[in-house]
Amino acid sequence: MATAEAETSQEERESQGGVVYDGFISYSHAADDLLAPRLQAGLQRFAKPWWKRRALRIFRDESSLSANPHLWSSITDALDQSDWLCCCCLPMLRSRRG
Questions:
Q1: pLDDT tens digit string along 54-75?
Q2: Residue 91 phi/psi, 5° resolution?
Q3: pLDDT of residue 10
Q4: Cα–Cα distance between 81 and 42 in angstroms, integer?
Q5: SS3 for 25?
Q6: Could you give the CA distance from residue 82 to residue 24 in angstroms, rounded to a whole number?
């Protein structure tokens, strides 16, 4: 039996200020441009039931965001509406600090 939360559409969750995304991927475009889309695709396929398009709804700026004058607020809203934050950090960035 489906729960009421599962039956709630994305539009209803957005209007109520609830969780829209299961995860938010934060990454460096210069360093992780190949990793981030693969991570997103893998998470969306992970344990996906055959009847669903994706297992998880993941926010990544290049696939989830359109150009608009309120770009930064769109990103912070998506982060606020996400259950999890996935931050991609490379070991080479650690060595830059000295």
A1: 899 999 988 888 888 888 899 9
A2: -60, -30
A3: 54
A4: 21
A5: strand
A6: 6
Three-class DSSP category at 5: helix
Query: What phi, psi does 86 have (nearest 5°)?
Result: -110, 110
Whole-structure pTM value: 0.69
Residues 32-60 pLDDT 10s: 888 999 999 999 998 888 898 889 999 99
Reading across the β-sheet that carries 21-26, which strands appear in turn?
Answer: 58-59, 21-26, 82-87
How many other C-beta atoms can be found within 10 angstroms of the C-beta atom of residue 89? Answer: 12
Place of tokens 């996935």: 86
Burial environment of residue 36 by CB neighbours within 10 A (0 to 12, 13 to 18, 19 or more): buried
